[in-house]
Amino acid sequence: MAFFVYLIVGFLGGLIGGLLGTGGCVIMMPVVRFGFHFPPPAAVGTTLTAVVFTAASGAIQHIKLKNVDKRTAIIVGCSGVLGVIIGSLIFGYIKSYGKLIDFILGWAFLIVSLRILYEGLFAKTVSPQQIGSIPGRTIWKSFLGSIIGILTGIIGLGGGYALVPSFIYFLNAPVKLAIGTSMASFVWIAFVGAIFKFFQGVVNIPAASALGIGAIGGAILGARLTGKFKPNVLKTLFGVIFLYVALKYILIYFGLAI
Predict the structure, then answer these.
(1) Would you say 150 and 84 are in contact if contact means Cβ atoms under 8 Å apart?
(2) Has residue 149 been placed in a domain?
(3) Given a cut of 70, is residue 226 above it in pLDDT?
(4) Taking every pair of C-alpha atoms in the chain, what is the biggest distance, in angstroms?
(5) Is residue 214 part of a domain?
(6) Cα 113–52–152 angle (5° rounding)?
(7) Which domain holds residue 12?
(8) How are the residues of the chain apportioned to helix, strand and coil, as percentages rounded to the nearest 5?
(9) b/e for 208-237, b at 16 or more Cβ within 10 A?
(10) Strand (E) positions, the chain?
C-alpha cells in the first residue's frame, strides 16, 4: 500500500514538475518531509535518489530530440560531480541538525517561489534564437556546475531548480536546450549525490524507487500537457504554493507550525 502511495506522489510530482519545468524534486521533497513525516536528512536523500530516475529518463529523451549541448553537459556534469562530493561531505556534518536543514531548505524554496511568481506575474515569454550550443566560456560553465553540485549535495536540489534558470538567464540558452542539457548534466550529479546519501544512511530505497518510477510517467505526461495550460497562470498558482512551503520550512526552525 505504501509503495502505491509513493508511486502516486511521484507521478504528481513529475506531472507538476513537467508542467513548470522545475523538475519533480521541488514537489516531492516537501510532501515526503511534511506529508510522510520523514526526518529532514531522509527527505533530502530519498528525493535526490528518486530524481536519478527522472533525470536519466529525461536525458535520454532530450538526447534523441537533439535538445542537448553535449560539450556543456560534460563540462557541467564533471564539475558538478566534484561539487556534489564537496556538498555531500558538508551534508555529512550537518545531517544531525534537522532543523538547520529545514531552515536552509526554506530559503531555497523561497527563492524558487519568488522566481516562479515573478515569471507568472510579470515576465513575458521570450524565445531566444534556437542554436545548437549554449553560449559561455568553459570556466563559467565549470564554476556554475561546481556551485550547483555543492548545493545539490547539501539540500538535494539542483537540476530544474537551479541549472535550467542559470542556463537561461546567465548563459542566454534557448529553453529547450537549457532543459535538455540540464537533465544530461544533472543525472551524473544526482547519481553521485544519491550514492553518498545512501552510504550516509539517509535514503529510503523502497520510497525512492516508487517516487522515481511514478515521477517518470508524470514528467512525460506533464511535458505533453504544457501547451494546454497558460504558463503564467500555472506559475502564479504554484508560486503561491511554494511560498507557503518556504514559510513552513523556515518557521518550523523557530518552532512555529503553519
Answers:
(1) yes
(2) yes
(3) no
(4) 50
(5) yes
(6) 50
(7) 2-253
(8) 80, 0, 20
(9) bbbbbbbbbbbbbebbeeeeeeebeebbbe
(10) none
